[in-house]
């Protein structure tokens, strides 16, 4: 009987099945038929249709002002399963599958360190969390990233020793989903080097690490060869982004991410009571992190610390708590460690510790049940893939040259729907757009919150304007 078969004939296996059934209900929670105007997901869809056609891939001409020209390709490979390019529900079903799969792996990770019932409840708290459910409705790579992160974690902590090839392949998938996966691979190398349980000579450790690096590089190069569009990360964009690092931005990020971690623990209770939950959770989580770092740090501790340091040095806060969602189960891991450490200091019996954790987690979940109902109040009526916009985008594609650059506040939409190069408009790029773009596209309807001011709109509308059903297309005078 193999490891998987054994799992289902244990108490842990029973909880795994219960969790699977409970997570299946997520297919029916908060799944709008439209996608919103956040256009990074459009870029992933666009990449999915050009995986083997890099030559005709339209690009963003000012990536430093908006985002990378290309993103991790593995998520686009997953989206390419959908043959109907604008079928949003199919895309969202794919996201939901990765969401549920990540939840099951997060449970396996937690249950490697804690009893099964507290692990089950902690997993439900994470994956039924309001902010997680909100993001589940978007077409984002966070949950595929979570899947590979916790698959790597479960494999690394497994009693069964997996080969270097298997672990390197998982990390290659993690990195090909999002470039920041490199920090977890770096944490793995540190863990392999210093772990006291792996008593090996220095030469053996060096060989093992070099073998791991070799296989990782081979897998990444293979993906690059098989998928012409692939690039693990856009060096020019990240170089430009990190050039903006200042001590003030790091200081600001510290409070920004503390605040956003706290948001995950907000409950549907009177607002003045939430700080009495949020701040103790943050403090206990820090105690748990400190306890683990001083007792015997391992892969997950190194990975979390390096990941958070990377976020603190990242100068942009536009993604909000999206960057925190992949490590939310790890934050719960530290909070549980913190509680168990406090229980041991107070000399509470082991059986009572598990009971207290179970009751506490159950209360957290029970006081948050209304969040599912709250999501019903948030729906998107019109998105960039809506049928009512097809005529406008078709007109733009037919009446502009393939070499033209169109300035729009959601530039990846231009790449995908109009098959044209784009210029990202925002409050800082208005004047540059007048110089570098051939056309401006401005919404007639309040379809989206455009990122430029009315003064610019007045200026460009004085040009050669075509009035479409939902947009103004303005040809700029050169």
Describe the structure.
- The protein is mainly α and 478 residues long.
- The chain has helices at 3-7, 11-24, 40-48, 73-79, 88-111, 116-127, 130-136, 142-157, 164-177, 181-194, 202-226, 235-242, 247-263, 275-295, 299-313, 328-345, 350-366, 371-374, 390-398, 411-418, 430-436, 454-460; strands at residues 405-408, 421-424, 439-443, 464-467, 471-475.
- The protein has two domains: 3-30 and 62-377, no CATH class; 387-475, no CATH class.
- Helices cover 58% and strands 5% of the residues.
- Strands 2-1-3-5-4 form a five-stranded mixed beta sheet, sandwiched between helices.
- β4 (464-467) and β5 (471-475) form a beta hairpin.
- The longest helix is centred in the middle third of the chain and has 25 residues, at 202-226.
- The radius of gyration is 24 Å and the shape is globular.
Core attributes:
five-stranded mixed sheet, mainly alpha, 478 residues, 22 helices, 2 domains
Present the secondary structure layout.
Blueprint: H1 3-7, H2 11-24, H3 40-48, H4 73-79, H5 88-111, H6 116-127, H7 130-136, H8 142-157, H9 164-177, H10 181-194, H11 202-226, H12 235-242, H13 247-263, H14 275-295, H15 299-313, H16 328-345, H17 350-366, H18 371-374, H19 390-398, E1 405-408, H20 411-418, E2 421-424, H21 430-436, E3 439-443, H22 454-460, E4 464-467, E5 471-475
Parallel strand pairs: 1-2, 1-3
Antiparallel strand pairs: 3-5, 4-5
Helix pairs in contact: 2-5, 2-6, 3-4, 3-20, 5-6, 5-8, 6-17, 8-9, 9-10, 9-11, 10-15, 13-14, 14-16
């Amino acid at each position: 009987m193999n490891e998987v078969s054994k799992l289902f004939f244990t108490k842990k296996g029973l909880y795994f099945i219960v969790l699977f059934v409970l997570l299946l209900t997520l297919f029916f929670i908060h799944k709008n038929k439209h996608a919103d105007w956040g256009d990074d997901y459009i870029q992933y869809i666009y990449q999915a249709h050009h995986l083997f056609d890099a030559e005709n891939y339209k690009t963003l001409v000012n990536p430093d002002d908006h985002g990378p020209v290309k993103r991790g390709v593995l998520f686009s490979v997953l989206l390419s399963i959908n043959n109907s390019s604008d079928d949003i529900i199919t895309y969202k079903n794919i996201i939901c599958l990765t969401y549920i799969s990540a939840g099951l792996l997060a449970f396996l990770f937690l249950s490697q360190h804690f009893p099964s019932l507290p692990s089950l409840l902690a997993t439900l708290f994470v994956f039924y969390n309001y902010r997680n459910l909100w993001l589940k409705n978007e077409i984002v790579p966070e949950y595929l990233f979570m899947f590979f992160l916790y698959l790597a974690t479960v494999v690394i902590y497994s009693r069964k020793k997996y080969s270097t090839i298997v672990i390197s392949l998982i990390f290659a998938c993690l990195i090909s989903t999002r470039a920041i996966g490199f920090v977890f691979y770096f944490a793995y190398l540190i863990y392999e080097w210093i772990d006291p349980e792996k008593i090996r000579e220095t030469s053996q450790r060096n060989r093992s690490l070099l073998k791991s690096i070799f296989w990782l590089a081979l897998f990444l190069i293979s993906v690059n060869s098989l998928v012409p569009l692939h690039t693990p990360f856009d060096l020019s964009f990240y170089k430009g982004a990190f050039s903006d690092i200042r001590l003030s931005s790091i200081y600001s990020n510290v409070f920004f991410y503390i605040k956003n971690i706290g948001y995950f623990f907000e409950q549907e209770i009177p607002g003045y009571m939430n700080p009495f939950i949020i701040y103790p959770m943050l403090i206990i989580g820090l105690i748990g992190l400190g306890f683990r770092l001083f007792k015997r740090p391992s892969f997950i501790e190194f990975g979390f610390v390096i990941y958070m340091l990377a976020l603190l040095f990242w100068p942009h806060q536009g993604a909000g708590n999206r960057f925190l969602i992949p490590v939310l189960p790890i934050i719960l891991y530290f909070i549980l460690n913190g509680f168990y450490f406090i229980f041991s200091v107070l000399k509470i019996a082991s059986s009572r510790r598990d009971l207290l954790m179970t009751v506490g987690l159950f209360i957290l979940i029970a006081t948050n049940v209304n969040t599912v109902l709250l999501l019903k109040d948030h729906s998107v009526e019109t998105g960039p893939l809506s049928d009512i916009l097809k005529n406008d985008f078709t007109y733009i594609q037919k009446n502009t040259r393939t070499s033209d650059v169109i300035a729009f506040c959601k530039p990846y939409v231009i790449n995908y729907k109009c098959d044209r190069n784009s210029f990202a408009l925002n409050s800082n790029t208005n004047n540059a757009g007048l110089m570098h773009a051939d056309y401006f596209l401005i919404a007639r309807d309040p379809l989206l919150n455009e990122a430029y001011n009315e003064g610019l709109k007045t200026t460009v509308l004085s040009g050669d304007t075509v009035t479409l059903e939902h947009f103004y297309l303005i040809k700029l005078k050169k």
